[in-house]
Amino acid sequence: WNQIGTWTSDNDHNHLGQTWTGVNNSLVISGTFDAAPYTPGQPKGAPLVLANTLPTQPTSYGYGLRILDGAIGTVVDHAGTGMWVESAEDRGYYVARVGQPPVSQGSLDPAAFEVAGTEGSGLFVGYSGSHGVWINIAGGHGLSVENAMFDGLHVGNANNGLNVGGTNLAGYFHGPIQVTSGGCTGCLLATFGVNAGDKTLQPGDMVSLVGLRESGVDSVPVIMEVTTATDDSAVVGVVQGWAELVTEDEPRPSEIGKRLVPREGAAEPGQYVTIAYSGLTQVRATGPIAQGSKLAVGADGTARALHTVTVDGVELAENASVIGTALEGLDAMQESDLIWVLLSVQ
Known about the structure:
Layout: E1 91-95, E2 111-115, E3 189-195, E4 206-214, E5 222-228, E6 235-247, E7 258-263, E8 272-285, E9 294-297, E10 303-305, E11 308-311, E12 314-317, E13 324-326, E14 337-344
Parallel strand pairs: 1-2, 3-5
Antiparallel strand pairs: 3-8, 4-5, 4-6, 6-7, 6-8, 8-14, 9-10, 9-13, 11-12, 13-14
């Protein structure tokens, strides 16, 4: 151990069972070791190659390298890749515990990076020039939180606290939600129904209630049966599009596992339909309509301006249900068209 100089091994002996000790006189192996082209499993490209031929199975505890004690187990001063795991049967990187965690729980599934228990943070990023965590593709959940004592997801400060796009839904909340210190900009209150008539329902068409049925989905407690509105019917909202029935692969225990998802386009007879009943939306209307007019349902099922009558010099509005306020006008000579309406079905 305390030898000085260059020593060439005769390759005809081993040091098994020996213990080497020293103080500030490290074992240094240096040289040029090139593994190009890289071939997995080849004993080249490193100053030290270790091979433990114990079979890799769940009951095997054979190590390629074991550090019994050290202030820092492994230090990489500089490297192209700090750590490379070519293949792992169970875990690519495993931390049994850090500090004194009250609970330590390992994964039942193979994991590339696993922390069974930690007194502090499981993953801490002090600063990131780009994304703190990047998930390119996920076969299941992009981020799954099974249980959290406080917030499942906490954003302390961000230009946009949460920015989400979704093929089916941008967000799904199984329970009440609360918004404080701010309004809901661009929110449109909507529900689901089924086209119970014999005509196709187009976006912008007003619909009336003709019945109610049990839901059978997680999206809403009941499903409205609707048809094209008339001037003497109970208008419940405006068609936004059709709705698709989607089955969830992993529903919550309290869920049915089926949801209605809004889609663009017309709703055919018997098809699910998305119905808006409050907010900013386009409604099929017939002129003349002045900007700011209160709207009611006409005989043809389109929106029209609320009529007024003068009685003893006093202008009175007709006794008709108001569905909203016109945000733009429509000339009497124009055919029925879509106009923007602040919807408030009464």
